Amino acid sequence: MFLRVQTVTSRGHTYRYAVLVQSYRAKNGKPTNRVVANLGQLSDREIENYRTTLEASRTGARVVILPRAGEDADWGIRVRANLQYLDVAVGLAMWDYWKLSELFNRLLPRGAEAVNPSAVIASLTLQRCLAPGSKFYAQRWFPRTALPELLPMDPVHFNNTRLHRVLKELDRVDGALQEELPARYQQRGVFATLFLDVTDTWFEGRGCDLAQRDRTKEGFRNRYKVGIVLACDQRGYPLRWKVVGGKLRDPQCLSQMVDTLCQLPWVGDAPVVCDRGMGRASLVAKLLNSGLRFLTATTRSEYESYTDAIPHQPLADFHPEGSALTKNDDMVEAGRRVEAAGLQRVEDRLYVLDLGVRERTLVFELPARTEAPGTWDPEELAGGAAIVARARRYRAMLDAKEVATQAELSRREGLTRARLTQIMNTLRLDEVLQEQVMAGDFGHVPEHFLRAVVRLRSGEAQRRLLVEHAQTARAAVGSDTGPRRMLTGKCTASLRLVVYFNPEMFVDQRVMDAHRREVIAEFVETLNRRLRNWKGGVRRQESIAAEVMGRLAQDNLMDAYRLRLETERHGDREVPQVYLDFDPEEWARRRRYDGFVLLVGHPDLPHSAEDLVRLYREKDKVEKDFGTIKSVVKLRPVYHHTDPKVRAHVTICMLALLLERTLEHRLARSPQPMTAPACFEELRTCHLNVLSTDPDAPPTYTVTDATQEQLAILRSLRLLALVDDKEVAATIQPTRSF
Predict the structure, then answer these.
(1) Which tens digits make up the pLDDT trace of 654-700?
(2) Does the residue 276 lie in any domain?
(3) Residue 628 belongs to a domain
(4) Tell me, what CATH number does 406's domain have?
(5) Are residues 450 and 510 in the same domain?
C-alpha cells in the first residue's frame, strides 16, 4: 500500500489530490493497482506524514510525531498536575478496610472545623507508610499526592497549627481507640496468640517530660528517650501500646502491660507470649497470679531451680572447631547427641523435650491479713519480713527457755553462729518498724537492705531510710498515687516446662565463648608487654588488678578466672606481671546449657510441647512489628517535645503498622505475597494526572496506565477499580485549582 498524489488542472487552477493505493494481482496473474481511499487535498506536511506512517507499517518501526524545528506544537491539552496516586489509594483502601474514618468521626466529631480530624489522621498515617518524615515535611508531601481529592481536603487546611491540634485530640481519645480496635479485629478472626515486647525511641534535643537520659537499645549513650510497650496478635496487629519513662526497665514495662491485659475480657484463654525479660521467678509468679495463660523463657541462671532434667551431660566434652567448613557437621553431631539423650527431633535445628507440669516455690504478693504480724509464720513470708519474723520467733524461744543459749539454738536450727547472729541483729530495728516491715507497709524490703537499716542507731533514721525505699519501689512499679503496701510470701506453684535445643545456637555459643577466651589471653599478653615496657612511675598493683577485673567484667568472666599478680625481674627492673588461672569447673558449669532454652508456662496450656516451642519462637511477630515502626515507619527519632504529642506520634506509627500488616495479610493469600514496602514501591509509578483543555473548564482526571505487575497486585486485593478512569472520575472530588 502506498500514497499516490495526482495533479489536475482545471480552468487555470492546479489541484493535487492524494489517494491511498493498494497493489494486488488480478485474476490473470498480472500485477495491478486499485484505489482504496480518496484522501482529498493534503498539505505537504500531511503527505509526508502519511508516507512515513506507511513505511513504518511495512518495516514494523514506531512512529513519533514531533513538531518541526522552530515550530511549536499545540495539541490543546494541558497536564496541570501529576500526583502520587496508586500507592496512596491502596493505603487508603486498607484504612477503609477497618472503617477507621467512621471510628474517628465518632471519637472526634467534626464540629466547627473546616475538615474532619479523621482526614488529618489518615493523611499522617499514610505519610508514615509512604514517606515518613517530620510534620513540616508532611505539609510539603500532602499537596503532591491525590489525598486532597480522595479524602477530600483542601491542602491549605493541612497546616502546622491543625496538625498539632489534631495530635493533641488524638492523644485524648487514645484509650478509646485501643478499646475499639480489638473488637474490630475479632470480627475478622479470633486472637490465637498475643505477644508482648518493649522498645524505645530517642529524641533530637531534650524531648518531653517522660524522656530520661539513658542508653538506647541501639547502643546510643546518654540520649533522652522513652520506652514503648506493645502487645500484638499473631497477625502482627497492634492491640495495646503504651509510652513509658525512659529509665523503666523491660521487666517493669512488661509487668505493667500484664496488669492491663489481665483485666481485658477479649484476651480470653489466648496464650500470652513474653520475652525472657519476664522469665525471672518473681515475674513468673506475677504472670501466674494474673490468670493469663502465659508462656515465657526463664533465664539460664534459674534453670536448675525449676528442674535438673535438662540432658546437658552428652555435650559437656563436645567442643566445635568453629570453622565454616565444619559447622554443619558440628550441628549434626550436637543434634545426634541430644536426640540420643531423649529429645525429640522436630526439625534439623530444633529438638524438644516435654517436662510436663512441675512444682516450684515462688514468691507471691500476699493479700492483706487481719491477724497480728507477730503471729505470722516466717515460712509464709519473704525477704526482710521473713527474717524479722524468724528473729522474733528465735527471741521467743530464748525467752521461754526452750533453748538455753544461741549456740544451742544454732545447732538446733542447723545454722552457723554467724548466720544466727545476722538474723538476730534485725531485732535492733525499732519494734514498731518491725511490725510495719512484716505487714508490708514499706513494700518488699530485701534482706540485704534491712541489714543496712538496722545499722542505723535511731528509730527515726531507720524509718526515714525505709520510707525512701518505699518511694523508690513505688516509682519502679509505676504506681502513681498512694503508698505501695506489698507483702510477699512463698508458695508452691505448678508450672508447665518444656525444653528445646537449637544445635546452631549451641555451636555459635561454644565458638563465641572460645573466641572470648582467646581475646582475654591476648589482652593479658598485651598488658604484660606494656608493663615490661612501662617508662613511667611504678604502677600500683591495685590499679593493674582493677584494669584486669574491668576487662573480665565486660564479658562476664570474673568467676571463670582467678587473678594473680607476680613481680618478675626483666633486665635491671622488677616489673609486675598478670596471670589468670582458668577454672575449668566453673567454665563447664557456665557452658552446660549452651543451645538449650527452658520454657515456663501456665499449667493449663493445652498445647503440645512442639506447639509451645513454635509459639515462643513466633514471638518475632512483635519484634518484626518494632522493626517495621523503627525502620519503615521511622518511629525514631522523635521531634515532638510534649508528652501528648509524643504519645500521639506513637499512635500514628501504630496505625501505620496496622495498615502495613493488613496489606501483607491480604497479599499473603494471593499468588504473589510480598511485603508492604515492596508493594508500595511497585505501585509508586502509577500517578493521577490532571488534564485540561480550557483553563476555565473543570479538569479531567486520568490514571497512568498500570503495569502488569501493578494490575496483578490490584487483582489480588480486589481493587482494580482504582485504575478505572470512569470509577476514578466518579470518586474524585476536586478541592483545589491548578
Answers:
(1) 999 999 999 999 998 888 789 999 999 999 999 999 988 777 777 88
(2) no
(3) no
(4) 1.10.10
(5) no
Q: How far apart are the first and last CA of the chain?
A: 46
**Domain ranges, residue 128:** 81-175+657-731
In 3D space, the residue among 648, 638, 650, 653 whose CA is nearest the CA of residue 228 turns out to be: 650
Same domain, 509 and 449: no
User: Do the Cβ atoms of 295 and 616 come closer than 8 Å?
Assistant: yes
- CA dist., res. 652 & res. 681, Å (int): 21
Same domain, 405 and 508: no
> When comparing pLDDT for 679 and 539, which is higher?
679
Amino acid at site 305 = S
Indicate whether 281 pLDDT > 80: yes
Task: Supply the pLDDT for residue 335.
Answer: 95
> Amino acid identity of 259?
D
CB 535 within 8 A of CB 559: no
> Residue 268 domain-assigned?
no
pLDDT computed for residue 541 by the predictor: 84
Q: What one-letter code names the amino acid at 209? A: D
Q: Which long-range contacts (CB under 8 A, 24 or more apart) does 100-103 make?
A: 100/655, 103/177, 103/180, 103/184
Residue 475, amino acid: A
- How many structural domains are present in the chain? 4
55 grid coordinates = 513505511
In a domain, 515, yes or no: yes
On whether both 455 and 520 belong to a single domain, the answer is: no
Distances (CA, A) of 553 to 8, 249, 546, 547, 549: 107, 21, 10, 10, 6
Give the per-residue pLDDT at 476: 39
> 34 - beta bridge partners?
22
As given in the structure block, the three cell numbers for residue 464 are 526515714
Tens of pLDDT, residue by residue over 37-63, are 887 788 888 888 888 888 877 776 766
Nine cell digits for residue 178: 485501643
Q: Are 114 and 46 in a shared domain?
A: no
pLDDT on residue 209: 81
Backbone angles phi, psi at 663, to 5 degrees: -60, -45
